[in-house]
Amino acid sequence: MAKQVFINFAVKDLQKSMDFYTALGFTNNPQFSDDAGKCMVWSENIFVMLLTHEKFSSFATKPIADTKSSLAGLFSLSVDSVDEVNSIVTNGITAGGIEPTEMKDYGFMQQRTIEDFDGHTWEIFYMDVTKFPTEQPAEQ
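Given the sequence above, the corresponding structure tokens read:
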């Protein structure tokens, strides 16, 4: 079996969250979805499990964090172009997400950030490795 990543999120409104992630470009895998959880597919090996608080709590050993007021983690997705970065974030904003910061341009990488309804934070980025700096600054 291939190595895969499953990110599990506690969400307050399962349908609203599923609609948001669909707007970002995820698809739903009904085989691993039910009334308490939705499996959202980003790629062949990357999945986001949207779980009601009740279902999430059945797996958790700690209280669920309030990700609207505290940062639990940053999740990043690479895409094939700056246009794709902009499209995904625009679709996410249209679906009700928020963009807490402006686009960051590092020369070799452009990144935008979007938060879902529960405050889970995603960084969508395009990286052109041919523009990555090859020389490191000299130490003083």
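The CA atoms of residues 86 and 112 lie 8 Å apart. Try to locate this feature in the token string yourself.
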